[in-house]
Write a structure and sequence with these properties.
Radius of gyration: 29 Å
Number of domains: 2
Shape: elongated
Strand content: 15-25%
Structural class: alpha/beta
Distance between the termini: 56 Å
Length: 446
């Protein structure tokens, strides 16, 4: 027993040394580095679930014997997992692919820092593989990599090679504990819930982001992967349906206004004068309804036809909900690259179904946003559009914007999986949707 206690004490001393060295270097990570408590005996190897840093003394000794810098590397690797919420896994996540994506993401950050105190054996091989992965998949964030692995697949042989190269810690604690009856779990049950723990890490991560943008900006300048991973987890999400409702307009609907109609006087008149009501019900009430809308589609480059079809369908379905749509609608779906290619007018569900079934993209030239705005201005001038409130411009790239603000609200919807979509003019709204979000969800980043 004495030997075990001594081994634990020595292991903790080694871990503390790594923590202290990292704190001296990365001041903006002080809260994150100090958050984890040490716990022995729950899992094999070394890992964290965001609450504890689980360790086995012999594994700590093995890592430290290889080099103290590997210990530092491992500790930072685990803390970065927490800052980017990697241990807080969704129920339908594929563990093997998620684990690999998270490991590659944090190793991409550590590699860019290029610090001797974080060096490990095989450093050159890791950097070389990271470069090839970046060329193949683009930005090395956990979410993006995971989506790529799931949609495009990953051969078992390649998966094993990548796992052997990038796996530094155990992720077993991310997916539940081994024993529901352990004394450690009884201790955990008295502490904050998993949801509360996640909220703590959200606050810590937000603090790290602020520090990176101010007093510790040199680190964000040093690691592009660090910035991109931070941007991914701090995307602000809204309901896409609520976003579209911003384009609603006030119109009169011929129906009883429940808020202004007084049933007491109406009933009293009917009883007193038989068929003559004392007060007539109001025949209309004002409601926010969408009557006119423009959906512009950038056909200049790589937006795939199926993705366009899904986006247009999702947008139309939200707009055409009974609570949003007026009976008479006038929706223009305009295709444009550097010039107007096509304009389809939609006034009913039947017309939209016919349109979407035969949707064929036209164009594929350069990107210029201005022709659509000029064309819409013409539609307004000729009276084709009389009450236009908003336009959504669906695009995947940069283009030339109008210099002046149009008379209607405009949102540019970028198809991007990097959390680094182009900037838009101050008068426009920017929405960033990943291909996965277009296909499955109705959330977007503002």
């Amino acid at each position: 027993m004495k030997t075990l206690v001594q081994a634990q004490q020595l292991a903790i001393k080694i871990l503390n040394n790594s923590r202290n060295e990292l704190m001296l270097t990365f001041r903006f990570l002080d809260l994150a580095l100090g958050k984890l408590k040490y716990l022995h005996g729950m899992y094999e190897g070394i890992g964290t679930d965001g609450r504890y840093l689980y360790y086995e003394p012999q594994e700590v000794f093995r890592v430290y014997k290889e080099s103290s810098s590997r210990c530092n590397h491992l500790f930072l690797h685990m803390v970065l997992h927490c800052i980017f919420y990697h241990p807080f896994v969704k129920e339908d996540t594929k563990p093997d692919l998620w684990n690999l994506a998270c490991d590659i993401a944090v190793e991409g950050i550590i590699s860019e820092l290029s610090l001797s105190q974080l060096e490990v054996d095989g450093e050159e091989e890791i950097r070389g593989k990271l470069e090839s992965l970046k060329e193949r998949y683009g930005t090395l964030t956990a979410g993006r990599l995971y989506r790529q692995f799931v949609t495009k697949g990953l051969a078992l042989e390649e998966y094993e090679r990548l796992r052997m190269l990038f796996e530094f810690d155990s992720h077993e604690s991310w997916y539940g504990s081994k024993s529901q009856n352990s004394q450690q779990e009884k201790t955990q049950s008295k502490e904050q819930s998993r949801e509360e723990l996640f909220e703590d890490w959200q606050q810590i991560s937000e603090r790290v982001k602020v520090d990176m943008e101010t007093v510790s900006k040199e680190w964000s300048d040093r690691s592009d992967n660090l910035v991109r991973n931070m941007n991914e987890v701090h995307k602000e999400h809204y309901d896409y349906e609520q976003f579209l409702k911003k384009f609603a307009v006030m119109v009169e609907e011929m129906k009883v206004s429940q808020e202004e109609f007084d049933y007491i006087f109406y009933t009293y008149g009917m009883e007193l004068y038989e068929d003559v009501p004392l007060i007539e019900p109001l025949e209309y009430s004002e409601n926010k309804k969408i009557t006119e809308f423009v959906i512009a589609i950038d056909t200049s480059g790589s937006v795939e036809g199926e993705l366009v079809k899904r986006f247009v369908t999702k947008t139309y379905n939200i707009l055409s909900q009974q609570s949003n749509f007026h009976r008479k609608v006038n929706i223009h779906i305009i295709q444009c690259d550097a010039k107007i290619q096509r304009d389809d007018k939609i006034t009913s569900d039947e017309e939209f179904e016919h349109y979407i079934e035969g949707l064929l993209l036209q164009g594929f030239g350069g990107t210029d946003f201005r022709p659509v705005f000029a064309y819409v201005d013409e539609l307004i001038a000729t009276g084709e559009l009389t009450n236009l409130k908003g336009m959504i411009y669906f695009t995947d790239g940069k283009g030339v914007y109008p210099k002046t603000k149009p008379r209607y609200d405009t949102a540019f919807v970028f198809v991007d999986d990097t959390a680094q979509a182009p900037k838009v003019p101050v008068w426009a709204m920017k929405v960033v949707l990943t291909p996965q979000e277009i296909r499955e969800g109705s959330k977007y980043e503002h």
